[in-house]
Design goal:
Blueprint (H helix, E strand, L loop, with lengths): L2 H16 L5 E3 L23 E3 L3 E2 L4 H11 L5 H9 E2 L4 E4 L4 E5 L9 H9 L2 H4 L2 E7 L4 E6 L11 E3 L2 H12 L2 H4 L4 E4 L2 H9 L18
Antiparallel strand pairs: 1-2, 3-4, 5-6, 6-7, 7-8, 8-9, 9-10
Helix pairs in contact: 1-3
């Protein structure tokens, strides 16, 4: 599938999800700061510093994403590349419909779009040498969810597995680089990235045509 179609697919999922999702956070003073970036703030900041935020079309360029992939020597599955290029959003806590479990997702804020992903990858960087690329955390921060790039199929998709951090940490960085040491710890979750995105963002609504601007909400 062309990258434009992957972007459209991910954007449609995120927009539909945002319609009924909680979208408030502490306002950031500038785009590089923590919290809701100024360009994503929708309405006035309240007396406690909280503000509603909106989903926006991403301005992240493919060339910037390619540079990020080159930096870490990875190649993300096409649906995840589409996700990263589709929208600015701050959904960092999602819920799996399939498993009834919380997931700490890497959000894509304006100004520092790849910042959350960079932080997670650097935390678990040795796993990349073992063929596992971290992109989220399972449960209440129980361990990294990873693309198993050694099981990549023809369309560039990868299955998703997770590993318990309490088991990984005692291994140490060097053994985490060895696939034979890490593979027995991997627990399968999803057959593909597309399956994962539909599970956490789909809510059964994937065909609604939306404009991709600030999403309306009743909250």
């Amino acid at each position: 599938m062309p990258i434009a179609d992957e972007i459209a697919f991910a954007g449609q999922l995120i927009d539909a999800f945002a319609l009924n999702a909680w979208r408030r956070g502490v306002a950031a003073i500038d785009s590089a700061g923590a919290g809701v970036p100024p360009e994503m703030q929708s309405g006035e900041v309240d007396e406690d510093g909280w503000v509603e935020w909106c989903v926006l079309p991403s301005t992240l360029k493919e060339v910037d994403l390619e540079a990020f992939e080159d930096e870490f020597r990875v190649q993300f599955p096409p649906p995840f590349r589409g996700y990263l290029l589709a929208r600015f959003h701050l959904f960092d806590q999602l819920r799996s419909q399939q498993y009834g479990q919380q997931i700490f997702m890497t959000s894509t804020p304006a100004g520092t779009t790849l910042g959350p992903l960079r932080k997670l990858i650097k935390q678990w960087r040795p796993l990349i040498d073992a063929g596992f690329v971290p992109f989220a955390q399972w449960g209440d921060g129980w361990g990294p969810m990873c693309f198993d790039i050694h099981q990549r199929v023809q369309d560039g998709e990868c299955p998703i597995q997770w590993m318990d951090h309490e088991v990984l940490i005692p291994l140490g960085a060097e053994r985490c680089r060895l696939r034979e040491a890490v593979l027995p710890l991997a627990q399968p979750l999803y057959g593909s990235c597309r399956e994962f995105l539909v599970d956490v963002f789909g809510r059964g609504v994937i065909n609604t045509a939306l404009d991709g601007g600030c999403a309306d909400s009743d909250h």
